[in-house]
Design goal:
Elements (H helix, E strand, L loop, with lengths): L1 H6 L21 E6 L10 E4 L4 E8 H8 L9 E3 L3 H4 L1 E7 L10 H20 L2 E16 L7 E2 L22 E3 L3 E7 L1 H8 L7 E3 L7 E4 L11 H12 L1 E17 L7
Parallel strand pairs: 4-12, 6-10
Antiparallel strand pairs: 1-5, 2-3, 3-5, 6-12, 7-11, 8-9, 9-11
Helix pairs in contact: 2-4
Length: about 260
């Protein structure tokens, strides 16, 4: 599970709400190759430098699609497609320096990265995604019987665009996982539910009614080798005053309608 702990942080900003009004954007140059030594347990990598250099190593297309549409990597809300989408990893090098001017916020940088990825996947993999609402079993994030134990963040939403990526107050950003707990200096309940979904067997929806940004710090609820979901529920209730309840709800589902192996560089 270490790969999940390390990479789940990629898809953590507020679901479905891009912070840019740009039209179609694309990388200036992009190289896509099947991972040559995928069977040698190379680490999975996804990073975007401040100057706009995207580096992807040993990542299945399914994860790239999840990243592009701000979904947890394990999400059941991304469906369809042939088996190779989940089993064949790729290495990608791409650049778009004009999209990442100095001074843009971390959240804006993530939003632009998602738009660039959507274009890249459409152009090079022929990806077509259909989005629809479906009623499915979910975990609803709710306030526990003893009330919320959440701690207010040091910043408000209006302060977030001014926070540089290295400020230590990275809004709408969570990292960590089962073996080390969750850590986020300024997140809302939508962010928390989306991130928690990485360890769930169904979507997580926010039903807390809580608004604003909060500091999240929890202990772990399992090990790298084995995640204890029941312990995760306990951590949420005892540390945050929140519960995960079984319900049914309508959620947005992303269906892979068409995809093909990438065209040449």
């Amino acid at each position: 599970m270490r790969w999940l702990t390390a990479l789940a942080l990629v898809a953590v900003t507020l679901q479905g709400q891009e912070q840019t009004t740009m039209g179609r954007v694309s990388f200036e140059v992009a190289s896509i190759k099947p991972t040559a030594d995928a069977g040698n347990h190379r680490p999975i990598r996804f990073s975007v430098s401040p100057g706009g250099q995207l580096t992807v190593a040993n990542m299945p297309l399914h994860w790239l699609i999840a990243n592009a549409y701000n979904l947890p990597f394990q999400s059941l809300r991304l469906t369809g497609g042939p088996g190779w989408v989940r089993s064949e990893p790729y290495d990608i090098q791409a650049v778009a320096p004009a999209m990442f001017a100095p001074g843009i916020s971390a959240r804006e940088r993530e939003a632009r990265t998602r738009l660039l990825l959507q274009t890249l996947l459409g152009d090079r993999f022929g990806l077509v995604i259909r989005r629809e609402m479906r009623e499915v079993p979910v975990y609803a994030l709710v306030v526990g019987k003893k009330g919320s134990k959440l701690e207010r963040a040091a910043v408000m939403e209006k302060d977030c665009p001014a926070q540089p990526p290295d400020s230590g107050l990275y809004c709408h950003h969570l990292d960590g996982g089962a073996d080390g707990g969750l850590h986020g200096p300024a997140v809302d309940m939508g962010d928390l539910g989306l991130y928690a979904e990485n360890w769930m067997d169904r979507p997580v929806v926010d039903a807390t009614g809580i608004q604003g940004l909060y500091k999240i710090e929890t202990e772990g609820w399992g090990t790298v080798a084995e995640v204890d979901k029941a312990s995760m529920f306990t951590v949420f209730e005892e540390r945050l005053g929140l519960k995960l309840e079984l319900r049914r709800a309508k959620v947005e589902v992303f269906v892979i309608e068409r995809v093909e192996r990438p065209s040449g560089n």
